[in-house]
Design a protein that fits this description.
This protein has 266 residues and is an alpha+beta fold. It is built from five helices and 15 strands. It starts with a strand and ends with a strand.
Length: 266
C-alpha cells in the first residue's frame, strides 16, 4: 500500500484496524518509491533506469549462472534515493545493478539450468565515480534503456507480509492478522502489484509473503519490484512479478551477495 501523503496514514490505519492495531501497523511504514518512466516534467532520479547496459566497476565481471550470462534489468542510484530513505538505507552503495536469468532465452543451455538456484540472480554495487557502461554479453538479452523517476511514497506492507505477532487484535474475531486486513483494508491492499517500485515494502496481490524474517523477527528489506513490462519485453509467467530483498543485517554491512530474488505469479 502506497501513500503520496504520509499524513493520512495514521488516521486511516486507526479508522480501519482500531486504535491499537492501527498504530502498530502505521509504525511499520517505510519510505519507498514508484519507478516512473521519466519525462520532461519528471526527470530521471540520478542514474536510475530500467534495462540498458550495466554500470560496473572495471574489475567487476558480468554475472553468469552455469556459464549462461544473466540479464541486466535495472540500475538504482542510491545517492539519488538516500535523502528520502534516511535510516532505511544504512549504507551508501552508490549504484546497484540488478541481474536475473532471462526466462525466455532462446538457446538450449537454458533448459538445462535450475531456474530456482540462487545463482540465477545477482545484485552488484558499483562506485559511480568508477563505474563504466558494460553491454550484455551474447547471448544474454539486452533491454532498452529507460530512465526512471523515483516518486517518493510512504509504503505499508500487504497483509501477507504481516505476521500475527506484529499486531494486537481480537483473536476471537479474526483467525490471524491477514483476516484483520481482509476485513478492514481489502479495498486498499495490493493496489500497485503491477508496477515497478523500489525500497519501502513489496506490493503484491498474491497470498504469499515476499519479505522473509530473520531470527529476531525482522522483515527483510525490499530493494526492487519489477512487474511484467510489455514495452520492455520482459515478464515472468502468468502476471508474474520479480522481487529483490535483502536481510537487514546484510544491507547494513553492504553485503549484497546476500540479496534474494523471487518470482510470484498470479
Amino acid at each position: 500500500m502506497q501513500f503520496d501523503d504520509p499524513g493520512v496514514l495514521n488516521d486511516l490505519c486507526t479508522q480501519r484496524l482500531g486504535e491499537r492495531a492501527g498504530r502498530q501497523f502505521a509504525a511499520m511504514a517505510r519510505p519507498g518509491f514508484r519507478l516512473i518512466r521519466s519525462t520532461e516534467g519528471t526527470p530521471a532520479s540520478g542514474q536510475c533506469r530500467l534495462g540498458g547496459p550495466a554500470l560496473l566497476e572495471p574489475e567487476s565481471r558480468w554475472p553468469e549462472h552455469d556459464g549462461v550470462p544473466l540479464s541486466l534489468h535495472a540500475v538504482l542510484d542510491t545517492d539519488a534515493l538516500a535523502p528520502w530513505l534516511g535510516a532505511e538505507l544504512p549504507v551508501r552503495p552508490g549504484l546497484l545493478n540488478f541481474f536475473y536469468l532471462d526466462p525466455d532465452l532462446p538457446y538450449e543451455e537454458y533448459r538445462k539450468l535450475d531456474v530456482y538456484a540462487s545463482g540465477v540472480w545477482r545484485v552488484i554495487p558499483a562506485d559511480p565515480a568508477q563505474a563504466v557502461a558494460v553491454s550484455a554479453p551474447r547471448p544474454a538479452r539486452s533491454y532498452p534503456a529507460v530512465p526512471v523517476h523515483a516518486a517518493e511514497v510512504t509504503m505499508l506492507p500487504d497483509c501477507w507480509d504481516v505476521e500475527d505477532g506484529d499486531l494486537d487484535y481480537d483473536r476471537d474475531q479474526h483467525w490471524g492478522a491477514a483476516s484483520l486486513f481482509l476485513n478492514g483494508m481489502a479495498d486498499l491492499d495490493g493496489n500497485t502489484a503491477g508496477s515497478h517500485c523500489a525500497f519501502g515494502w513489496p506490493d503484491t496481490a498474491h497470498t504469499l509473503p515476499v519479505s522473509s524474517r530473520d531470527a529476531d523477527g525482522r522483515a527483510a528489506i525490499h530493494l526492487l519490484q519489477l512487474a511484467e513490462d510489455t514495452e520492455l519485453g520482459w515478464g515472468w509467467g502468468d502476471a508474474g512479478t520479480l522481487y529483490f530483498t535483502i536481510p537487514a543485517e546484510a544491507l547494513a554491512a553492504g553485503d549484497f551477495g546476500e540479496a534474494v530474488a523471487q518470482v510470484i505469479c498470479g
